[in-house]
Amino acid sequence: MLSEEHLKELEKASQIIAQSRHLVALVGAGMSAESGIPTYRGAGGLWTRIGEPDPRSFQNFAADPKAWWQRMLDRESHPEPPERAQFREAIDKAHPNPGHYALVELEGTGILRYIITQNVDNLHRVAGSINVAEIHGNRTLLRCMRCHWRVPREEFEVVEMPPRCPQCGGVIKGDGVMFGEPIPPDVLNVCFREADLCDCMIVLGTSGTVYPAAGFPVQAHRHGAYLIEINTEPTPITEIVDVSLRGPTGDLLPLLVTRVLELLADR
Length: 267
Ligand code: APR
What we know:
By secondary structure, the chain is of the alpha/beta class. The protein has a domain at 1-37 and 95-138 and 182-267: Rossmann fold, CATH 3.40.50.1220. The protein is built from 11 helices and 9 strands. The strands form 2 sheets. Strands 3-2-1-7-8-9 form a 6-stranded parallel sheet, sandwiched between helices. It has a 3-stranded antiparallel sheet with strand order 5-4-6, with no helix packed on it. Helix 7 runs parallel beside helix 11. It starts with a helix and ends with a helix. Adenosine-5-diphosphoribose (APR) binds next to helix 2, strand 8 and helix 11. Residues 28-30, 33-34, 39-42, 45, 118, 136, 205-207, 209-210, 230-233, 235, 248-250 line the site of adenosine-5-diphosphoribose.
């Protein structure tokens, strides 16, 4: 049962979103927590349990992509930490939750124009969202390091080591952005454009600690956009947002979208 204060904040957020002409959602791992995927930081987070990956992960890959692919394709001989295997199994089994579907509904009203997600789990696309910028990549895809050509993993046959791009001959890697890897410019340009164009940004389940994604709410705020945050904990941007809703996205987003639809119907 939501408190009086909660209901007041929910109403304020609904009113702001119902008036928005260009809403952008910035999404983090908290959005997929209710789909059974552990977050990275905080209690039970993957990095909390095994430590953050080597900041030179990308440089190590680029120095010897063949070795990376051999380890990736031959898990038998190159077992990964059990926590990583559990994380992978959790993503493999995951389905969109009511929070993902609420964003699909909001996109259908024409108010939500883009989702910038830090999640690699593909759940927004599975749920039916169309305009999705996957700033940290998508684990179901492979990507050319040179021309950024992308292909679903299951449509690509590894015929040489390291695998090469059929378009430009560049080295192929997982689309997931490694620690130390520059964000592919095609995705990054969309994110900066949307952070500039939005009149409201809703920030969902992110600790707001990893840049450039963590900078988008500040960029939006700087040009006068409203900020709404849904998180189970306070974050570095909580003190600058217009509305802070404390709780799980899987519960609060559907309530928010239901109220927005009511406001739109009353017009
Ligand atoms: N609903 C809303 N928020 C939640 C929920 C939930 N059900 N569960 C957890 N949270 C919040 C936590 O309070 C935290 O603020 O989600 C956030 C998760 O933070 P992180 O684990 O740091 O995830 P994220 O912000 O997405 O990390 C950014 O770091 O290592 C990289 O590539 C990784 O994309 C990831 C990036």
